Model the fold of this input.
Amino acid sequence: MNIVPPGDLQRLLAEEPFVRLLAHTLLAEEADEVVQQTWLHAMRAGGGVAEPRSWLARIAWNVAHNLRRSRRRRERHERDGIDAPVAVPSSAELLEREERRRQLVEAVDRLPPHLRAAVLLRYFEGLPPRRIASQLGLSVTAVWNQLRRALQLLREDLDGRHGGDRRAWLLPLVPLAGGAPGGPSPSPVPGGPGSEGLVVPKAKVVAVAAMLLASAGGITLWAAASCVNAPEPAAGGGVTASPAPPDAPPDAPADAGQPAVEALRTPVPLGGTAGGAALVVHLRHGDKTAAADVGVLVMPVRGDRRVDALRRRTDAKGEARFDGLPAGRFHVATDRCDVGKLVVTDGTKATELEYELPVGMTLKGLVVDRTGAPVANASLDLAPLGNTDIDAEVVAATGADGRFVVRVAETHAYLGARATGHASSLLQSVTGAAGETVELRVQLGAPAGTVSGTVVDADDRPVPRAILRIGAGQACGFNAVAGHPPAPATVHTDDEGKFVAVGINPGTQPVVARAAATAPWRGTCEVTANGTTTLRVQLGRGATIRGTVRDAAGAPVAGATVEVGDMLDVAHFVAATSADGAYELTGLAAGDIQVLVRHETAGRAERVVATTAGTAARGDLQLASGPQLRGRVVDETGAAVAKAALECRAFGKGIPQGMWLQRVRSDAEGNFVVPNCPVGARLTVEVRTSGIEPLTRSDVDPGAGPLELRVKHAVAASVTIRGMVADSTGKPLANVRVMADDGKGSRDPSLTKSTGPDGRFEFGPLPPGEWRVFAATPLHPTAARGPKELAANATWDVETVQLVEGGTVRALAEGDLADVVFVVVDAAGHSAGSFSNNGPTPLVSRPLAPGAYHLAVLAKTLTADAAPFSVEAGKQTTVSLQLRAGVRQQVDVVADALASPPQGATLRVHRGKDLVTVSTCSFRESKRATKELCLPPGEYRIAVFDGDRQLATAEVRVAATESAPVRIELR
Done:
């Protein structure tokens, strides 16, 4: 099996935003895991992909489809005992009910901060999803996905605390969810953000209990939730919201009532300050100490965190003051990526907000330079795992001894450092538990430069709160397996429009800038090591697109997602359509703008809208519908399988973005209907549900008649995998990301873990099958164990996974390298990684294990002979390649003769005895694969391998001009 170090997949950096967008489309609540596993399987399949978008898309589809199996297996007994008759509770039952209510509230408090925010706003504050979306800066669909994910984690949490016996906690919640009389009295939410003095009425726990039962047991208790009374108006002039309508379907955006307001102190006179109100935020930790030097962000509830937020740091008393706020609603958050609060100001009075931070992790450590010397006054950047809406924020600085402490970090985060005169560090992936302290050592890079300057508008006036990204790479949405390359510098202008960015690599660096209501600006700057570059950015007037989204029949579509730009880019714009199908996007660049709209059932559409600076353009879109696929899901005996989840996908040039996805469920009789299939496309259909083995059918024609999907019951999970990760000397390594993989992508998120202080890890229970274990850090090549076939109840002790110090290779080549991929081939002929000029470290590979390799080239129009080289630990090897023009040669690999073709195969191209290049192909969607190679004229031998097993060979003559495709049949 080919192993590619995770960072080497950054050669596909141009496709990484596409993978993230696809992951959110496929499985929004677990998009982070989909992205991570996509890279994992890309590593296993090898590098050198001629068409990476299609290849990565197919991997992502399979990953997303398999993620649910483990989760649903645990739910197969959910319905047991839920329909018990209502009886008058005894004293013992009331006490048990109170205990379960307390456990439920505590479970909510243990949720990850961004999920806890959605739950508190929805079920405790009573906000409808549309209001939550506005407050958190998300789409309505994203809010519903977060709520689903939160309920799933609540069930898993409560399962775990009751020994896996769901009945133990589920049954006592039935009378609570039904609003039974004699329930417990209100009590505080323990330990939650802003929880001091916060009382959770029984009625609000009812809503959570009802949703837990509805999602866990398949019964509807919305009627019980509808009995919740609307809270009284909050102090400070705010208005609380009534709950969303009780019959609101899980996917329907609700918009009832007004937003809830955080309980505030009694407003006091502003004290003569003119031009708006003042907001004073008081932050404290859970131990009641003042939270000093914490970044506080205040932004309008419908604002953009990147360009609309006011930023202040708390003083020694834990206070941050914001003056001049107009009347309105504001979202208050911190740079630690925690929950945040909602406040309302009337524009004339000062308001004070008490805010208790969640516990989180504590990160302690040392920042050093390349020689190991401590670096004073280095800034620490912190970013949450996978979040594409929150950039890395500066959260602390080192002292004179180079040491730092960051409290209240999320339990899954990325940390990096930058300092004047030094290139920024790699981002370290940090995983821990709330209350845990993690020790880190962060090393800065080679000498680097500083960029400072001013941002002005079209009238030469300074622009405050503008955001700038300087340097290559991404500043959010981090999902790498063990770490991530250095992030670009992300800075905001002050009140005078000035900024300073440090730790910028020497050379020509890209710059992107944006501010509210202005068009994005893109350019470059020249940076010198240990020097300062002055940059003046002038932002132009932005354009607006307004429009209406309609379905194929012409009816307005509510809740459709409209997007412009890449979700990882500063210039990313997103909106959800209102009830009348209307949307508006502002602050766009002038010119032709690609607008994409999608809706789960109504379809998708895209169009180019011509915009002009300072004006609004019309961008109406009509969603496309297509043929229907009908069928039935049955088990081995022919009995109907109800509520089975089906996901259908298709790829092709005629499909928007080259991909299509639709999800449906079978009804009580096992029947299903898939609407809006792409015209003329063949589908891959996958069915999953609790207690069955996943089933995939490829090459499905929607017009061929009803499709029967016959599934098999699954084997219970009973396998355990454990071991330890150590360095080359045998010393245990803490905080190393470890993954277990069965080759099918069927893993739940808990199966990506970090080693503990003793370097140990453990996975299970897992289903029987063939398993592998991978471990890696940003400084070590990936180490793998397995595959190993594990029978029921087996325990695999992999003992010690030893990570060795690696070296890197740097490609030296001249010419246009825009589409050139450099492929590292190990001595066995397997791809060991790849990289490009567009990666985070241009033309340099990630760490490789010491040994002998070849460096080959894959490109559309250029070619080069593979060059041999060796890797030494701790060193970088430079390899020169002579690029020259080549001829396109299509290769069709056909596996029709194989009953079960491999998921992927490797093509090794030789001229005589010399290796020319290596590529891969995939048979995940069909038994045929097409590859495009670029080779100089001559005679070649192409061998197709599955791992070390040769499947076929073909002699190929490449002429001076493109000739007919070569067909290679696998037998």
Notes: Residues 140-160 form the longest helix (21 residues). The domain at 629-710 is CATH 2.60.40.1120 (Immunoglobulin-like). The longest strand covers residues 780-790. DSSP finds twelve helices and 62 strands in the chain.
